[in-house]
Amino acid sequence: MPKTEKIILLIVFLCFVFQGCASQSDLENLQRDTNNNTKEILALQRNLYDFNTELKNISNKLDSLSRRTEELRREVTALSTETKAKFASMEKEVEVASQPMRRYQADLGARIDKLQLDLQNLTGRFEETKYFAQKTFGETKEIRDTYQRRLEELEKRVEALNKSLENWEKKAGAPEKESKEGKKEEKPLSEQPKVEEKVPPAKEAKAEVLPERPPATPEEAYKRAYDHFTKGDIGSAKEGFKKFLEAYPKSKLAENAHYWLGECYFAEKKYEEAILEFDEVIKKYPKGNKVPDALYRQGLAFLEMKDTINAKLILREVIKRFPKSDQANRARKKLQEIG
Predict the structure, then answer these.
(1) Torsion on CA atoms 229, 230, 233, 235, rounded to nearest 10
(2) Measured distance CA(219)–CA(244) in Å, rounded
(3) Which residues lie closer than 8 Å to 186 by C-beta, 6 or more apart?
(4) Which of 30, 165, 254, 308 has the most CB atoms lying inside 10 A of its own CB?
(5) Using an 8 Å Cβ cutoff, are 256 and 279 in contact?
(6) Mind listing the pLDDT tens digit for each residue in 83-137?
(7) CA-CA distance, 251 to 223, in Å (whole number)?
(8) Which residues contact 190 (CB under 8 A, 6 or more apart)?
(9) Residues 6+ apart with CB under 8 A from 329
(10) Would residue 21 be called left, alpha or beta, if left means φ above 0 and alpha means ψ between -120 and 50 degrees?
């Protein structure tokens, strides 16, 4: 009999002793209850054993799972390290592979800027040539009209001289016929050598109509300086634009002269002077046609001086003030190149 069952029976027995003598039936009932309790206890012990066994199994499974988790963690760590290494290697490969493309893009951007500048110069030259052609056509028409008027005056003067000559001949009288002694008939005065005909006045008139060369106009002075620039003679162009601005500061071509003077400084790599000259265009002619170009070239000048902060500010100003212009498109591309 198990120890627990003995203890229960002893407790029950003592209870009966203290309460007095118990009958046989009570003892049998007590025995039955004790047996039932014993069975329940045995069943609980078996359940407890099964539970302990299951708990041990679960504990073993947890230990196995923990070990597997640790292995997975180490595998993930190794995989992460390997992935990072491969990613870094790929980044280096991409960087190395993209360098030629970046150089090509930079070269292409520079070539596009040069082509756009050339196109801008050609457009400006075309406009100026057109302006001078129209002006020259007007001057030519005026000179032609002047010549026409003077030619008509000369024709009238020649006609008057001819009439005067005819009148003079009539007054001199007709020549007498030759006498019978064989005198030769004198020739009419009109058929005699024109020694006495003073034709030189007509020549003098021609000399009078030869126009004298007018002094250089603002347009001619500007065109002379601009021609020097297009031919690559930057020094002569710079001096020409300076003299033009000194002589004609209020000319309608003064804005262009300031701009091209800035381009002369830019070509000479005198970027500070170029910035100041472009600034003259921006301040003096805020609504002028050259302001977008002056702003953009000012930004490039700062960039050439390695002042990327001011360069970016100026290029953004171009985009802000002239968002739909060609200069704004070039400014956006340049900002992308700067980064």
Answers:
(1) 10
(2) 9
(3) 175, 176
(4) 254
(5) no
(6) 888 878 888 887 777 677 777 777 677 777 777 777 766 766 666 666 666 666 6
(7) 13
(8) 169
(9) none
(10) beta
